[in-house]
Every structure is written in structure tokens, then in C-alpha cells.
Amino acid sequence: MTAGGDEFEFLCRMGDNALVLGQRLSEWCGSAPALEEDIALANTALDLLGQAKMWLDLAAEVEDAGRTSDDLAMKRDVMDFRNLLLVERPNGDFGHTMTRQFLFDSWHVEMLKELADSKDARIAEISAKSAKEARYHVERSAETVIGLGDGTPESHSRMQTALNELWSYVGEMFHDDEVDMSMARSKLAPLPSNLRSGFDRRFRKVVEAATLIPPTGAYAHLGGKNGIRHTEHLGHILTQMQWLQRAYPESEW
Amino acid sequence: MSDNGRDSSVHERREWPLWEIFIRGMHGLNHRHVGSLHAADAEMAMKNARDVYTRRNEGVSIWVVKSRHIAASSPSDKGPFYEPSRSKAYRHPTFFDIPEEAGAM
Amino acid sequence: MYAQMVESTASDDDPEKLAAFQARIDAGEKIEPKDWMPEGYRKTLIRQIGQHAHSEIVGQLPEGNWITRAPTLERKAILLAKVQDEAGHGLYLYCAAETLGVSRDEMTEMLLEGRMKYSSIFNYPTVTWADIGAIGWLVDGAAIMNQVPLQRTSYGPYSRAMIRICKEESFHMRQGFDIMMKMANGSREQKRMAQDALNRFWYPSLMMFGPSDGDSVHSSQSMAWKIKISSNDELRQKFVDQTVPQADYLDLKIPDPELKWNQDKGGYDFSEPDWSEFHAVLKGNGPCNSDRMKARIRAWEDGRWVRDGLMAHAQKKAAGKVAAE
């Protein structure tokens, strides 16, 4: 266990999710299907980067080891990252990106809603602010999933493919582990498994409106949020993201 | 077909329609025209307007109107439309001289 | 600037109408979309605003190149917000051009087919992080010189777009200079990157203003129409005079041995950029022309199914509503 204990672990999970997904979305900047979408994606990415900073600031504070949020973002290696596997999946086409976004947002709103009641006032405060952003994110990603699912035969088939491909990364969001249980016991965070019904309600509604077939597989890839086994993609994300800090250590930017 | 092998004529034009965006900057003010954007439908236009035109905290309420639904006065109407009102100075409060003794009015 | 060497189209309209139109412009009136305007005015504006819009969109690419590698969380957010603003500026400008009877899709196709241009500056690569500083400091600095006066341009929608853009741009140059300050005062390697960025971006920045107007008929027509406000040389001189003291402050050296203060003219004497390089870049032979075009073409073509999909959905929804009524 790292210094700072379960709360530090948990804060890194929240921060790393926002950071890695924000990083992924920022890859789209300048190449989205329309200018309006380009601007909207950047807004979501900016919200997430802002959230990442808040969570990692708090993580650094809780850890109390003299590290900053930038140290956490730019100087940890893959095995110390605590994000869900879902958010490190490559962007794929725009439909794939928006499906990943919708799946994450649908979990994120439920999580943040509960976290706004955390016993730790600092967690509650960050969550309340982030929840407002996440509610807009899910509204937008849901509408896009519906529009493209229902759109043309081509867009429908691309969206179905994306959903099928990403489905096995959904389960990790609701998987309870030691850290989660400890956080729940201390009334600092909800048990992830309790968020599933809220997720399912929204998911069913949106997928039906999108005329997509909900995948049924129960298999869930695990290993992101506990850092035990990330996908190969995370290393490449970090290679880019951390390059300057690694190549020129001790520099001010 | 152009030099680089692209041919736009084969694509059916299905451009998202243009929308005019009106934003209420603060509670109590009128909505003001801020610009336009493209969107497939009104819901999307609303969201796009939020993302494009309120990035710096500019609004509390948004109206979107399809550009082609706006009927605009034509410049040649300028004379008949606006000039007659110039001769009705009595509509403006400064037209009347009220003695100071009468108080605020 | 972002619109370089825009050709003006002569008009063969009724001389009386032309005179009345010119009188309105001379009186400082704004021309609005439904007003009568000479065909040449309309066409020149489409070229100029379109070129400006394309420059914003292509201009996203060199800076976008560093978003995923920005060195801190804050720098990443600032850069993303800035490049996003550029998309916004492109959007405002396309909308302004659309009031002249050309659609955004048409303009996009013209760009991708090489029938419309964008600024030469975006065909240069961003190879180190200091380039992001140099772009904000020099390229945005040069752009602002041109955009501030354009707020007074005669065409209403263009003028309003420029007002909005100038308001938003105000942080762009500052963030660039802020990066340069950090780099110039940083480690030896950082300082080297900063100097190298200035070396590479100095002359391309001077080229942004376009060659000397001389007695170009295009320029004088555009100036009479108030769609070009200042001459290229005037703006370039202003830019150099503004930038030299800033470089001194950073303790960086402008790569021009001829650069010196000229007391008589109250400005700096400086070397002209290599105009043959400028023309080569405009012809498509800049270091990044083909990469930039490929990136735009790919975004456009990869996005088609998305644009069509969302449109098809909207049409189904609308048909459903009509059927239900």
C-alpha cells in the first residue's frame, strides 16, 4: 500500500480516469467531423483535465509526500496509474470515441452524484463541481450515440461495432475491490456495484433509442483501476504525455 | 475532377443547416444575436451553441432559429420602413418642456 | 496576413450604383448581407474571409501537434483552450462568409481541392515545445496587428466576427510570450530551444504580411472598399518595432545581422525575408503543405459518415414529428 492509503489510491483512480480520458479526447483536436464537434470535444477534454488537476491535487495533499499533481501526472509509470481500462482504449473512429465517452459518462454521473455526499468535504466539493460538467457530457454523448445509432446504415453498423468492442470494459467500472470497500466503510465513496442500476437504466434507454442491440457478454477485463495489468496502450499515452518532463527533468515549464 | 483526385460533385449535398444563435447574457436582459453555426436539428444546435458561444461564461439562456426561417426587412425598404418614425418626435420624452417645479416625471 | 495576396475582382456594375456604394463606405457605413454590393466586392470578400477561416482551421494543426505532449497539466489545458479558440474563429469566419452566398461545405471542398489558400505560416513545423511559445508570441502577435484594424472593415458580418475574435485572441499572444519567458530563463537546453524557435519562426512571421504592396491594383481596390485597412509594409514595420524590444527582454537574438534602429524613420531597419521561399510555400512546397492538406482531407472524409448519420437521424425525427401531428 502506498503512503496515503486507500484514500490516496481512490483519488488517483478518479484523477487518472479524468486525465487519461482528457488526454485521449485532446487527440481529436483539429480533426473532428465538424467544427462544432471539434469545439465540443475540446470542452469535454478541458473539463476532464480540470477535474484531473483537482483530484490529483487532493491526492498529493492526502499523500503528503511533497509531490504535486504534475508530479503524479508526469512522473508515475504505468504500474502506478489507476485509471479504468476503458479510458485508455484508443479513440478509433468518432463513433468509437463517443461510445466510450457515453459508457464512461454514464458511470461518471452516478459516481459523482454519490461522491457529492462524501464524508470528506474536499471530495464532496470536487464532486459537486464535476457532477455538473458530467451531466452535460452524458447528455451530449448520449444524444450522439442515439443520432449515429439511428442515422444511416453505415453509422448504425459502426456504432454497433463500437459498442460490441467496448462492452467487455464496462464491468470494471462496477467491480468492488479492497480499496472500494474500505472507502465505502468510511463513508467516503459509494460501492461501485451500487452504481450499476442507475447506469443500466440510462444505458437501456439510450441504446434502445439508438436502435442498437445491447451486448450480453458478462466478461469484464480488470486490472486498470488497481494498476495490476493495464493494456499496452497506456504506455504509449504516457510516452507522449510525460516526454518533456522525463527528457528534461528539473526544468520549469 | 481536380488535380488531387477529389471530386466533390459526386457527393449529394447534405450539409447541416445553418442556425442563428441568440443568447441572454444576464438575467433580465434581452436575448442578443451572437452568431451562427451548423447543426442537424434544434437540439443539436442548442448544444453546439452552448459549446461554441458560451465558452467564456457568456450566457444564461439560448435561443436557436433556423437561418432560413428568419424574415428580414430588405435594405430597399429602408426609407418607408424607418424614416416615418423620425417625424414623430413627440414620442420621445425630451419633446415636452415640463417646468422644474412640477417635479420628476 | 492570414489572408495573403488576396486578388480583388474588378466590377463591371452600373457606375451610378458603384459610386453610391463607395459613398456609403466612405461615410463609414457598414454593408450588410442583403444590401446591394458590387460582384467584385462580394467575390473578393469570399476569397479573403475564406482564406482567413481556412488559416484558422489549418492553424490548429501545428499547435495541436503539441497538446498531447504539453509539459504540465496547466500548459496542456491552456494550449487545448487556445487551439479550440482557433476552431471557433474559423467557425465565426465561415459563418460570415456564408452570408455572401457560399456554404461552409463549398469552401471546405475548395480548400481541399487546392482552389482556396491559407496562410503560408502554417506550413512550418513545430518541432520543439519552444515553437508553441514562438507561435503565440510571433505568429499571433503578427495576426493581431492585422486583425485589430479589420474590426473596422466595411462588411458588417466580417467586422462583427473580427470583434469577437480579437476579444478572444487577447490571451493567445500572452500565453506564447509566457512560454518564451520560461524557456529563455530556464536551463541551457530550454534557452537553446527558445533561440532555435525564434531563428526558425522569425522570417516566416515576417512573410505573414505578404510581399510589399507596391502599386498592386488588388490592394488599392481592397483598401478603397475597406476590406484591407493597412498596407503590408506598414504592418510589417509595426510588427518588427514591437517585437525587437520583446526579444531583447528575453535576451534572445533576432536572426538578422542587418537589424538596427533608424532614428530618422523612428523604426528598425531589417532584412526582407526570402520571397522565393514564400512563393514556393504558397505553391505547395513548404515543409508541411502536403501533411497539412492530408490531415484536413482525412478529417473531412473520415467525418462524412458522422455528418450524414446525424443528419439522417434529424430528418427521421422531423418526419416522425410531422406524422404524429
Task: Write up what this structure looks like.
The complex is a heterotrimer of chains A (253), B (105) and C (325). Chain A is mainly α. Chain A contains eleven helices and no strands. Chain A is globular and about 55 Å long. With 105 residues, chain B is an alpha+beta fold. Chain C is 67% helix and 2% strand. Chain C has helices at residues 15-26, 39-64, 73-98, 104-112, 129-150, 156-184, 188-207, 217-224, 232-250, 275-285, 289-302, 304-324, and strands at 260-262, 267-269. In chain C, strand 1 (260-262) and strand 2 form a beta hairpin. Chain C starts with 14 loop residues before the first helix and ends with a helix. The chains are: A mainly alpha (253), B alpha+beta (105), C mainly alpha (325). At the A-C interface, helix 1, helix 2, helix 3, helix 6 and helix 7 of A face helix 2, helix 3, helix 11 and helix 12 of C.
Keywords:
heterotrimer, B: about 100 residues, alpha+beta, 3-stranded antiparallel β-sheet, elongated, C: about 325 residues, mainly alpha, 12 helices, 2 strands
Calculate Rg of chain B over CA atoms: 23 Å
Strand order of the largest sheet of chain B: 2-1-3
Number of helical regions of chain B: 2
Q: H/E series of chain A, N to C?
A: HHHHHHHHHHH
Relative strand content of chain A: under 5%
- Count of helical segments of chain A? 11
Uncertain runs of chain B are 1-11
Q: What structural class do you assign from the helix and strand content of chain A?
A: mainly alpha
The CATH topology of chain A: Ferritin
Main beta-sheet annotation of chain A:
none
Bin the helical content of chain B: 10-25%
**Structural shape of chain B:** elongated
**Helix content class of chain A:** 55-70%
Quickly name the level 1 CATH class of chain A. Answer: Mainly Alpha
- DSSP, total strands of chain B: 3
**N- to C-terminal distance of chain B:** 73 Å
Report, as a whole number of angstroms, the end-to-end distance of chain A.
32 Å
Q: State the total count of DSSP E strands of chain A.
A: 0
| Mean pLDDT level of chain A | 97
Structural class of chain B, by secondary structure, is: alpha+beta
